[in-house]
Amino acid sequence: MSVRRTWLRGATAVLTLLAATLLWTSVVFAAPVKNGTESKPSTSKAGTPAMSEQERSERLKQLELASERLYEHMQQGSGQEALADMEALIQALEGVSFKGLTSVEGIHALAETIMDTKETLVRADAQPEAWALSSARLRLAVNSLLHPDKALWQQYYKVMSDDLQQMKQARAGGKPAGLRKAFQALQDHYDVVRPAAVIRRPASEINRFESWLSYTEGLSGAQSWDEKALKGAIEQGEGELKALFGRRGDEPVFLPVTGVDSPWYWSALIGLWIVLALTYTGIRKYRADQAVTAVRAQRPAEEMNRYRL
Fold it and tell me: Which overall architecture, per CATH, does domain 2-29+52-152 show?
């Protein structure tokens, strides 16, 4: 009960803090222009001096560090350390203005992600999968807020493109179960990056992609197999995915190999690169597995690494 009461107090504090920040940010965004210059309030709250840019920068660094530590500790199942990280993250947010960092929708997405992670963290029946998912979503959201040009969530473009390719192959092969499985993987991956995407991308792009998801979900789950509609939906999804990640319509996932008359040569070269990449990945995974000490009950390797960034 004491843990529950502590969480309720913490949840109330987070909601109050982020609501106040959101209100203040909205006021600043809507501040009228007078005499050709934008009005600049001197206080961040009633009676409280405005935070300097240097202090704001330090707070944002603390926010990112806390989110990274929280992610690592929740991935490892270290509950006490993760609770301390969550408190540090909330303290770093106090009084910070989000002006110039994201939109009102982005602030809402960040607040919801923090609340979801905190609720998952204090839940009595701790679930490793939920810990891994919520901590990954929060880390990606904070990273997207602070690193607009090289955000980690952009790495999911290739992953979600692969999901679409799996859907296309399942449709062409007349495999409804395979198509539904690939679509579910696409939805799961989008759920991981959604807060980060909302923080960085226009609301119109988010709404368009989610509308496409809803439409395609209906087609993939229908009892009758509508070949033509599914083909059109998947082709549309490729464009919507590029728009979501801010990619150009003609931008390929990989650069094509052109100007060579010997396809066998390039096939062998590409095969060699794949072998090298798999070998390197295997070595890194082996070292990581040797370095991590299990804190909770042993979990399958696939489950533990599913949301590793």
Answer: Up-down Bundle (1.20)
This prediction's pTM: 0.70
- pLDDT tens column, 144-196: 999 998 999 999 999 999 999 999 999 999 999 999 999 999 999 999 999 99
Query: Would you tell me how many other CB atoms lie within 10 Å of the CB of residue 270?
Result: 12
115-140 pLDDT, tens digit each? 999 999 988 777 889 999 999 999 99
Low-confidence residues of the chain, pLDDT below 70? 1-49, 249-309
Domains of the chain, residue spans: 2-29+52-152, 153-254
